[in-house]
Model the fold of this input.
Amino acid sequence: MRKDRLFLAVILTAIFSADLYFILLPKLRNAGDGSGRFCSCQRSNFSLPGQFSNWTALTLQDLDPSGRGNGSSKLDGLFTHPLYNTEKPTVAAAERLLQSDRLMDYYRKKVSRWERHMKLYNEAVAASNITVTDYQVTFDPDANWLKFHTGISRHALYSRHDPAIARLLLDMRDMTVINSDFTQDEKALKGTCDCSQVVKPSGHHLKLALKMQNFGKAMFKPMRQQRDEETPEDVFFFVDVQRHNAEIAAFHLDSILDFRRVPPVVGRFLNLTGEVLQVTRNDDLRGVFFTSPANNTCFFAKCLYVCKTEYAVCGSPDLLEGSLSAYLPGLSIAPRISIPNPWIRSYTFTGQEEWQVNPSYCDTIKKLYPYNSGNRLLNIIDMSVFDFLMGNMDRHHYEIFTEFGDEGFLLHLDNARGFGKHSKDEMSILAPLSQCCMIKRSTLLRLQLLAQPQFRLSDVMRESLQKDPLHPILTEAHLSALDRRLIKILRAVQRCTRKLGDARVITDDFVRAAVNPRAYTESKKAR
Amino acid sequence: MRKDRLFLAVILTAIFSADLYFILLPKLRNAGDGSGRFCSCQRSNFSLPGQFSNWTALTLQDLDPSGRGNGSSKLDGLFTHPLYNTEKPTVAAAERLLQSDRLMDYYRKKVSRWERHMKLYNEAVAASNITVTDYQVTFDPDANWLKFHTGISRHALYSRHDPAIARLLLDMRDMTVINSDFTQDEKALKGTCDCSQVVKPSGHHLKLALKMQNFGKAMFKPMRQQRDEETPEDVFFFVDVQRHNAEIAAFHLDSILDFRRVPPVVGRFLNLTGEVLQVTRNDDLRGVFFTSPANNTCFFAKCLYVCKTEYAVCGSPDLLEGSLSAYLPGLSIAPRISIPNPWIRSYTFTGQEEWQVNPSYCDTIKKLYPYNSGNRLLNIIDMSVFDFLMGNMDRHHYEIFTEFGDEGFLLHLDNARGFGKHSKDEMSILAPLSQCCMIKRSTLLRLQLLAQPQFRLSDVMRESLQKDPLHPILTEAHLSALDRRLIKILRAVQRCTRKLGDARVITDDFVRAAVNPRAYTESKKAR
Done:
């Protein structure tokens, strides 16, 4: 009997050992690997190093942390933080870009002219075999796009909590398109192929100007690339495609950084037949439509029409995903000036610009008008921070409203070349910051805030982008890259402060703002 | 004690049951799935329906099956099958394209001229700062490329068991490149952008002519597309990229179909610096080289140089994958004529050709010279079978050697637009077969043979392609598509025979060949 029991015990032990060794252990090992796979690898790289909280004269701890939100929304928490509440709720009339009455008069006249033109056009078209869907324009003085235009101030394109912006996004998403046309850029090409130079690449020529039923206008950029496609490493930045999702993400990022220098952008599925082909009055635009071998409705750019057919975009069968950016007020009523970026890149294969070879390039720039006084250089550095986070190398020019003179903010237009590569941080984009060793205190504080776990940039971006109808707008890899790049910006500032001291690097654009937040507007007025 | 033993027995049983249920069963299930995954899913769709073996006057059972190979190699089995051994081993001098002496004289003169030119060029270059690697040409009258040229007969580009072909492939894979240049097509463009029409697309302009150390020539087509990428459904066939792997696969397919109308093609990694840039004597070619942002060596096409930079190909950092196709004898010694394919497609967005709308188009063609007599129409149908298997819609012209007159075989050149979509069978490519309801008996028999499990087309193709240095050349999805399309060809023939009877559909190109195989050459001579 003892033998029997021993035998059974041995067998039992053997079975248990075998189970343990061959089954349980591998499973545990797999589970270990699995959990490693599910947690984002980038996160572990990212936790704001302790030293960041001590190396500026003003630390985030000085700020009232009561505004961290209720825990359910990091984005709400961010926007209720004191750093995001330094502005007076209303903007004085003198600070606005446009006076409301003048704007209304201007648009009423435009609507009348449009209606006259449409009447004549429809009479002419009645004789031909073209069918154009004819919608009535309903000019609404309370339209959200008009509120956006009247809300533009010398500080930003819109104020922080302007409800008209959220409503304008809804309008752009839903409103009936009553007219489509080439954009002005497109028209400037006049359908000719200028092969004497490297032409601006494909995506550039596929954008459309859409007019909404309430006379609002938006620019449509079609989807050219899948969310998970990365720009191949051999592609020069200036021939990269334009990404509709980068336009959308840039609007959200700009708003989260509290710059508010990007006009509102929203994603939308456009019906190429009903919302473009059947409402255009431009024969040239009608002429670039065709049906693909898969029976989808497609169109391609005018210039490229006669050259290459690869540059088409196609609906499925009619619906095409894209971004809609709100138009700024017309140039005749709100002129803008376009100025070459001092850190412009060479748009050739071999060229190098001075800033790429001369480490003390900024010393020269600092002496030159308009960078030798005021905020212009700091604004350029803000822009480089914005572009570095997105990986956008295509910032050849910047625009400002002439109305605001040299102190006007820089418009961050045309961001479709951002978010091309999540795996590479193009440090050269940060050259204005790293070469000039200057940054606005307000910008730095917000960047530090966004590096804190409770406001992590990737988290607030993810949350913000979820509001877009085409979400997810960015892949997780792109969101993680934002956190990684943010740390690199802070490190670049840290290198400067170690070398030059805080006082020379961190520039008070609102003096003692964070200790006793004084309105940004006030500090501006005082200058 | 009994209780004790019962308890242990129960525990043991429980453990065994648990093991059986949770461990062994799932493992068995996985193994089952696994084997399902490894065997090609399409296989189950594919087994030659029984009726196929009975519906031709001549069945495969009539043939000696002794040549089915030793089971280890389906390809060897195929090539030893009587259907692949109907030819006399040697080709009579009168049947050759070129007489050996004349060819040797011609090339000796070309080599002398080349050496004179190089001497002058090198003297001129010595004064400049260009470095060109200078290799001596070693003209070898026993070179494999010369044997390929002399072996071209009125029946095919090479005979079935010519050892020079395998050796030529090795030469092309390994030999030192002593000169690189644009191809003649490229030169014809003269660097200008003709935007007055849709230009032939990108890939077309990136091919290079390479000269080997033994004076052999090959055309290089660079890799433009990953093996697993499918051509997007909205892309018109004529703007599809050219695929180097399609060139390679087409050579193997043509050989397996026993057409032998495609010049030998092999895959090779080319060093863009050492084997192209440093050996070219063409300044224009040198001028299209550039270094990419990722520091890779790239080049782009001459015409497109000034227009668009997207059309570049890049090495990694210098090595670029591509296909090398052996050149045919020069046009001055072996002129060819290029004839529009009667089943040509419209190279426009909306155009339709007559064959696409007129079901009795073939009746017209049959009455027209040269399709009203001889084998020309049957050769066109062979070509449509070849193109349908590859999914190649871009067969606008075919070429024949003028030396062989109207009875010459059709050259199957330029196959790089094949193998674009594995998931679609473009039935229109088969229009010559389905509209004319004719096929050569020899072709049909081989197609039937390749539909048998022991010679399955996908299997022999996979085996044949494994010989290429760049294998795998085709994905499994493309290989499976070959089997599926083969069945569709056989079904198309079956529909014809049901309607018209075997005698009117299946044309004896070798009379009673399979019952008593008479040499294809003899039947030809008898005509």
User: Anything to note?
Assistant: Confidence is low (pLDDT under 50) at residues 30-70, 190-204, 304-308, 511-527 of chain B. Residues 116 and 209 of chain B are 20 Å apart (CA to CA). The two ends of chain B are 99 Å apart (CA to CA).
